[in-house]
Amino acid sequence: MRLPTARLIEIADLAGTFLFAAEGAMAAIRGDLDFFGVMVLSFATAVGGGMMRDVLLGATPPAALRDWRYGAIAFAAGVATFVLYSRAGAIPDWLIVSLDAAGLALFAVAGTEKALSHGMHPFIAVLLGTITGVGGGTIRDVLLVQVPVVLRADIYATAAMAGAVVMVCGRALRWPAPLAAGLGGIVCFGLRMLAVWQHWSLPHASAP
Amino acid sequence: MRLPTARLIEIADLAGTFLFAAEGAMAAIRGDLDFFGVMVLSFATAVGGGMMRDVLLGATPPAALRDWRYGAIAFAAGVATFVLYSRAGAIPDWLIVSLDAAGLALFAVAGTEKALSHGMHPFIAVLLGTITGVGGGTIRDVLLVQVPVVLRADIYATAAMAGAVVMVCGRALRWPAPLAAGLGGIVCFGLRMLAVWQHWSLPHASAP
Amino acid sequence: MRLPTARLIEIADLAGTFLFAAEGAMAAIRGDLDFFGVMVLSFATAVGGGMMRDVLLGATPPAALRDWRYGAIAFAAGVATFVLYSRAGAIPDWLIVSLDAAGLALFAVAGTEKALSHGMHPFIAVLLGTITGVGGGTIRDVLLVQVPVVLRADIYATAAMAGAVVMVCGRALRWPAPLAAGLGGIVCFGLRMLAVWQHWSLPHASAP
Predict the structure, then answer these.
(1) For A92, which residue in chain C has the nearest alpha carbon?
(2) Are the CB atoms for C41 and C100 separated by under 8 Å?
(3) ipTM, interface predicted TM-score of the complex
């Protein structure tokens, strides 16, 4: 199962890179940044989570710097978003939320898988999968001086963590890697979309 | 002295993790974040400084990811704070300041000791001890979009650095590790508490 | 060419460290931080970009922690700025912009060279050179809770990237290292100064 697993991480990572880069570009355009600012945010949003994961794993240089395709995809998504933004008409919110949830699911799955394949404890693999999913968006929000969506949004990091947990359990039960990853991704994506649609949210602490 | 020193770092690190996680949770609750946001800030505040230290030392994966107890303690402290916050009555400021000063002292000592045991130059060990002490709170404040306490607070990083200096000097004078660490921690804690109590502050540059 | 190249990185790095530390100190003084806050920002601005580069390259501990001169230079520049700030009369804007552009050029060149000497792909070396140039200022701005200059300023990261590209092309054409580095630095510095002087800016995306 070596090869398919590595291939799986790669495909999920590259697809997530495209989606998160496009989202970072949109956030930059809405913040009225210039062309280069849009490129910086595309790149940081797309590869930030994976870079955090790889630096923490000690797998340096990170995949995003060892493989030129990550940067190329991120910049291509940034350029495409920059050019098409004005022509596309107002982009509906549901599309942005869906793309983001898909990116979150892909990165959570890829990050968890990579942590497991580096021999990390399942509990740590869940943490690293979650960090991979939410890291890029956190960097994007910090650079735009906003409280990160991961701290504000209903069931966001929770969804990433749920997907990672499903995946870790699946691997513990010796499911094939693609099945565990697929189910984990579906749980993450579905939970996030349901939460947005149903306005689910987690409890807040009551004041003393 | 191998074993006691390693044990010392570990105990100081775990105790600091609990205190900083509780403090991160309180900051998150005051910022009206939901349950998961409270967990994220507990974890980031508690292990952020140590992770920075370990990544900079090249000791990856960081201790906080190699040992599940760090994450478990951080989340336990976060949950306990979340549940007890409303029942505890208003938490007095002096308690928060004291817990924070204790966490700062524990982390500054643990970070300096770890840097020294990795063979770093004493001057660099002081820097890494200070980073370990103030790193988690800095990440917490950046995520909450506030100027970090380390840049605002009177004698904060200064206290961490003073503790680290005492410790490095003690080790140079061949004091036993627990004595050097204990004195360093007391100096850091005492200096920070005195500064808050006496409203000590460092000079500001005068305007031209 | 081993020795001259290593020496080149070192000199550019140390000179850039001094300039960026002075600039970080000025930003801190303007933000009314106390003496230690000024020291923290001097250090973070000066060594932040190089630390990011080294951590991403897996060259840990970073140069700034292996060599005490980086920290010493950063703190010396911070102290000098703190002491002289009030006596210097209002520091003219053009001087600050020039120092910053010089620091940007030195770091972009040093970062690109180091990435190439670690065997990175030229495309990645350009990215790492740019990150080295803009990383410290980004950390400074995030700590001061401002949208980073790299996202706002006209032709800033663009200039760093242009210098890195010139350098990578020069090395590909087998120019001597000092020539490639010199030309890269001049292009970066010149482009940034021209952009500020002529109010050049990059296009923004048009609204839908």
Answers:
(1) C208
(2) no
(3) 0.82
